[in-house]
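The data are passed on as follows:
___
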Amino acid sequence: MHVFADGISKVTLSNGNLRIMLTQRGPDDTTVEAGTLIIPANQASNFMNGLANSLKELDSKLKEAREQTQQ
């Protein structure tokens, strides 16, 4: 399943789960709920660190590709 989200409206902790409510920008700049990402609280740190590290690697690869294109 794919969910497009370009924002977060709320983060809560409930029953040992971190719930991240995802949003999309709708018509006329309204906010539309896109879904809820639920992560076990005891895995939230590992999940977020993994996501941050993946984004850093992607950023590094994009910078390298831009530098090669400019040469």
